[in-house]
């Protein structure tokens, strides 16, 4: 028996409460389960279930729900790993709340400002054009009418000078 889109929607609507409970148990979030139910509903016209029986259509709906929940859980795990990798155990709020970190950052900023003021004019301009204006070495060389290698040497000199200023703190 061939099922029409109308029949598939009817089967989906009848199975919806069970699918939602299934998703809530897997994901442990009612709102996310509701979002995934909507995803399933929107995909019904794109994905074609097996047409043998209503039982197979229901099984297919649960398989789609299972796959979507696994995708969601994998995505959440990846996000968590990335957040942990880049933030570690501290959050922005934790870091912002620590007065010693604020004082340390202000001291570093002051050291960098002093180091930048100590740079020769052309060296500082090359650093500015490279890091702030995002110009390539070739564009900087053309604009300042100097060679590419001179741009590279001056940029390396500026960055090294700033690193030494921060490290000597």
UniProtKB/TrEMBL annotation:
Domain RNA polymerase sigma-70 region: 16-79
InterPro entries registered for this protein in UniProt: RNA_pol_sigma-70-like, RNA_pol_sigma-70_dom, RNA_pol_sigma70_r2, RNA_pol_sigma70_r4_t2, RNA_pol_sigma_r2, RNA_pol_sigma_r3/r4-like, WH-like_DNA-bd_sf
Keyword match Transcription: yes
Keywords in alphabetical order: Sigma factor, Transcription, Transcription regulation
Matching Pfam families: Sigma70_r2, Sigma70_r4_2
Domain RNA polymerase sigma factor 70 region 4 type: 110-162
Family: Belongs to the sigma-70 factor family. ECF subfamily.
Protein name as annotated: RNA polymerase sigma factor
Source taxonomy: Bacteria, Pseudomonadati, Pseudomonadota, Gammaproteobacteria, Methylococcales
């Amino acid at each position: 028996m061939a099922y029409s889109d109308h029949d598939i929607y009817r089967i989906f609507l009848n199975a919806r409460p069970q699918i939602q409970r299934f998703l809530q148990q897997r994901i442990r979030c009612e709102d996310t389960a509701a979002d995934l139910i909507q995803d399933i509903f929107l995909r019904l016209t794109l994905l074609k279930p097996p047409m043998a029986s209503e039982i197979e259509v229901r099984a297919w709906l649960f398989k789609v729900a299972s796959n979507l929940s696994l995708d969601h859980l994998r995505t959440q795990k990846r996000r968590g790993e990335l957040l942990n990798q880049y933030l570690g155990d501290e959050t922005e709020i934790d870091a912002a709340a620590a007065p010693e970190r604020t004082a340390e950052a202000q001291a570093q900023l002051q050291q960098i400002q002093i180091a930048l003021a100590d740079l020769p004019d052309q060296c500082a301009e090359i650093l500015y054009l490279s890091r702030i204006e995002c110009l390539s070495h070739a564009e900087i060389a053309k604009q300042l009418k100097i060679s590419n290698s001179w741009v590279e040497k001056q940029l390396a000199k500026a960055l090294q000078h700033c690193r030494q200023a921060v490290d000597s703190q």
